Amino acid sequence: MITSGRERTRITLLILLISTVAWMVLAVSPGSTMTHAHHSVADSGVSMASMQMPVATPASAMPHNHYPLTKAGVSLDSFPMLLPISSLMAGWALMLVAMMSLTLIAPICHVIERSFRRRRARSVTLFVIGYAVIWMAAGVVLIATMLMLNILMPQSYFPAVAVVIVAFVWQCSPIKQRCLNRNHNHRALAAFGIAADRDALHFGITHGAWCVGSCWLLMLLPMVVPYGHFAVMAVVSFVMTDERLEHPKPLSWCLRPRGTLMRMIVAQSQIRLHRVHSQKLS
Amino acid sequence: MAGFTRRNVWYNGGTFDNSDLLWYARGVGVMQSRSLDDPNSWWFFAAIHGQYITTGDTSFPGWDFIPGPPQVPTTPLPSDEVIARYWDQCQHQSWFFLPWHRGYLIALEAQIRSAIQSLDGSPADWALPYWNYFGRDVEFKIPPAFTEQNLPDGTPNPLFVQARYGPNLRRPGDILVIKDTSGTPNNPNGITAICQNNTVYTGFNVLTQPPGFGGPPSGFLHSGGTGGNLEGNPHNLVHNDVGGSKFLTLFSVGLEFVNDLNNNQIAPGLSDAFQQSEFPLPADAGVRRAQPPFEFLWVISGGTPRRGLFVITPNEITNMLDIGSLTAGSRQGGLMSDPGMAALDPIFYLHHCNIDRMWAAWNAHGNSNETNVYYVNGPAAIGMRDFVMPMPNGTPWVYTPADVNSLDQVNYVYDNLNSTISPQPSNVLVQRLTRLGVAPAAASAAQAQGANMDGGERVELLGAHDGALQVQSSGARASVKLDPDVRGKTFASLANASAANLPDHVYLHLENVRGTDDAFKLNVSVNQQHVGTVALFGLRRASSIDGQHGGIGLNFIFDITNVMDNLFAANTPDVDSLDVSITPDDPFVDAAQITVGRVSVYRQGAS
Q1: Is the pTM of this model over 0.95?
Q2: Is the confidence metric ipTM above 0.85 for this complex?
Q3: What DSSP string describes B72-112?
């Protein structure tokens, strides 16, 4: 603890605000999510005419219930025209902001505490850039996977079931635990000049890499469910935040029951209810 | 309602004439007779604090490799559920350090009291004694009852521990704690009770160095990060002074190997000698000469990082006069030097009883504990493990800091809460402001406003040494570059110091200190001025990358305000760096692979 409690609270609230705004955009304008853009195609199949619509129309402006496509399916050579890559990546970025921001509170506080005050914004920016680059690169692979699954099995639950099974195995694996453990490893950072920039960027990249290793399957899940993307995103986000609250653990194959976040919510609710009750009595 | 009184262990000379000690020994004996999987056993209780049984260690500090007595069992293991619920609970580098250990002592005391009930003549009001190493005369030494091999009736003494070596590698068995002799209370070189002058449990102010008397905010935290001021000194230093380490001789060879060693080569004959010893060289073994001034010390390393092998001239350590041969050996820590073994040593509980007494004395002096809801309700309030102890009646006792917040809530008192309080530095602020040129009357007025003055909310980086340091036998040095802008702020605060504008405080940080051996102390100097001594108690666990804190290591904070004041007084406003020197307390540090991730300087001020 180098910064004061008040300063940490300010940082936490700012990150919470950013995450909340992203969630609100997702909730209010579902067309802006990469998953819903995908949904609007997946739900209906593809025709040549309709495939060009999203290219010309920003995904965020696409009506949620606009399903002009047929159930005819699609050939691989048509998929580059499916949606503009920029819209897909923008939707993916919005998902990341909403779902991952909370997991970044600790490393961002680490960067801030170890940087000169005038360099804090710069160092945090570099950290976030490094982190985002890794996740955006992972996003290309995950989106391609999603589109492929959608093309091969439109409107099918099979991809979602398969991802759930593979994710379950992954969650039990020592590799998953290794990734989670490394996310707790906050390295020393240089303070001056180019070395400070390099270290902040490198910290973002390594943190992002371990984060991808930990969460890639969980992030794929809301992308492949035919319905209920938003709900699945919320559940997955809850799971990922919960995992980060756990301490590192020895590496082994095992089923790791978690639940720290839920226990925290229950305990905090009880404490607050008790406090309200006590105030009423007094 | 207090039913029991904890008394000074040095009554009746700290021998078995002190009935508290005699019955403690007998109680420990009863608990040691129980099996590891019995929650009422000595071994189970030690594992509650921390253990190296389930960690898969194939050498020391694995409990299978601890030299007896006591003969430490590693089977039968309790169930996985029991291990997960009870073992490896101790809280360090956390604001839970004090309340967790208070509950731990209450449970152990209840177990001992229950254990001796079955023995003839046992007292009904037995209570755990405390070891006040700040006491008069020889009270800084371990009480004699702990070094006797036998009890008065001739049976083995359960308080005797083989792996308890003391602070001097050259005099193993001389068990004592080293008191501060620096003459500068904020920069001690040994144990001190200066933390008793803090006024903030978590945080900082004029009289309280960060992270505060009790420790920084945390969840359930077994090891890693920055310890509270009481935890750092005296707690950690006492652990390492008492546990210490020992040079274990493996074998002797002739001087004909010296030239090869100087050329960083291991001659076949030397390799054969290792092969015939109980520690054959690993395939990747390498050798190098230690740093000056240790001319006749070579370090052989490789294989598991926890094993360090050394070749030395015999008279370097063993005090043998034969200089016609070299002695190979290894350094091995004592039980008290590592949280994963410490509670196997019966002196552990008397040491912590004194730490608990210092906390009680601090409260009795008018200081309040943390009131933050996340502290008061314990780690379970944020979904983490709760604090739970096995009690003699077979029921687990789950507790929070709120349950043990003061002595009014527990069933014991201390016979004396006064002796650990150092004289309050009533004029510390006056002295500093006067030194900075503030008129004495105004400085006195500032002091009169109260000792709890906020030293300023703003904390920011002032300088750093970019790059990691390796602590070798010769130590480590770093030139900590200061940022001109931030340095300007600090010097401006010193120049404009007044009752209304308190001057900055400045702290040196050793960040991300990692290594494989806890049994070292580091002496730290800035510009050739000693600023503190720290013990690396907990280093191994904090450095484990798959450990509970991801291998971030330990952090240490030193008050270097007076260093900056001196630079200001010397009219050197353009000083661009500080010379930081880190020196280990003995030269066999190379194999411990101790690194410092970064050395940095922070200012704490009002603007």
Answers
A1: no
A2: yes
A3: ----S---HHHHHHHSS----SSTTHHHHHHHHHHHHHHHH
